[in-house]
Amino acid sequence: MSGSDPFPTRPSLRSFALAAAAFSAGWSLMMMEILGGRLMAPHFGYSVYQWGAVIGVVMTFMAAGYWTGGQLGDGPKAVPALRAALLAGVAAAALTPWLGKPMLADAAGRFNAVEGSVVGAALILGLPSFALAMVSPICAGLSSLTGAAAAGRIYAVGTLGSIGGTFFASFYAIPEVGVSAGYALAAVLPALACLFIPGGKRVAAAAALAVPLAWAAGHGEGQGFALYRETPHNTIMVQEDAEQIRLHLNVAWATQSRLRKDGGPTGLYYDLFAAVPALGNGTRVLVLGLAGGAAAKEILDSWPGADILGVELDPAVVEVARERFGLRPEVRVAVEDARRHVERSPELHDVVIVDLYSTALIPFFTATREFFAAVERRVAPGGVLVMNVASPMDRDALVGPLAATQGAVFPSVYVADAGRGNYLMIATKEARTLEDLSVRLRSAPAGAMYAAARILETLAPAELAGHPVLTDDRSDIDQRSLTALYGR
Known about the structure:
54% of the residues lie in helices and 14% in strands. The protein has helices at residues 11-44, 48-72, 78-110, 113-133, 135-142, 147-177, 179-193, 201-217, 294-302, 315-324, 338-344, 369-378, 395-407, 434-442, 449-458, 477-486, and strands spanning 227-230, 235-240, 244-249, 257-260, 284-288, 307-312, 332-335, 349-354, 379-390, 412-419, 422-428, 460-461.
């Protein structure tokens, strides 16, 4: 210690207070990092760029916080700085649910998705990362231990807090109470830790006021939706009016399922799935990415008795599909990861539909040569793969590379314009000519003739040459998806 003791209390209370401060700082910061990724997703997606931005920004500001906290050491400014750092973390947790969303929306409007991810992460995570990172080096300086022993113990306790905050945010806060209330819970421990810091009771009282402020932000969530639910996988939103019902996952501007209450066509790509059994040799259909079951409905309406298996990662989405979208009981459902399913399942299907999106982006591991090879093993002789690709701003950003990747596994690949920026990619188990596919579509049942005619209007061989084959080891589909959606 240098000069007079800035932390005048008995050693046992000092050790507890410093450990509590370090633990709570680690807990709160990691909670806010996980929550921040969820808060950013509607604006920047769940991509490698978004998470790279989150982690990189947090580490950058933490480095600055570590340096600053180390400079303060155990000097006269250490305890006031410790109180201020904890209070700043609490304030950030309280205000982010209110201010974070408009700031992120503004960043999304000013920057492209990659640049905006960095700017957005800095806006919502810069201050708490800097402030809470100051806590551990200050606590090490104030510890009754000296040197490496003090640093080792304090940083170990802080890391334990980080571990706890990570699991708590991921497995409890987000699915059970939601993002906004999660921020309120992230403020609790640093506020309590202030109680044990000399002169910190008033700070703790002020910090305590921030907790209900953050909690109150969650009461506005879900307004305007018929259903709003947070799960470990998704923010599920259902919009309903007199004419239709729509399912949105994570972003309100992207529709995962849409059903008209009068049973008529939706005008979206789902309508075209009614014709795809005509392309295979039977009606055993696997739907990877079931969502609300729009594809299953279109097929069953035109092909009564079709054997449909839907794969959906989120059990809550299946519940919503059954309860709100009338997913029929004859549709079998496997609640698991789509890639894991095709790699492990022994079933064969005449048609495999791939409609997999996470926050409007295709998960990279469901768009690689290895994935399509696993899908090909699930396609029965004479069968087809049909994949929906959303690429409204730049068609070839996704269609070309995905065609080349499918072409590395399937002998024939075709593409049809499904309208409104969506494309259906059709890959066949055996080599097929365009005329063969056309004949099959023209033989579709009456209820599927509209869909078949729509596909026939634009069906053509896909261009494979000059496009990369995406693999598990090398894929730039995150960037391509952002270009396809935003054009920049």
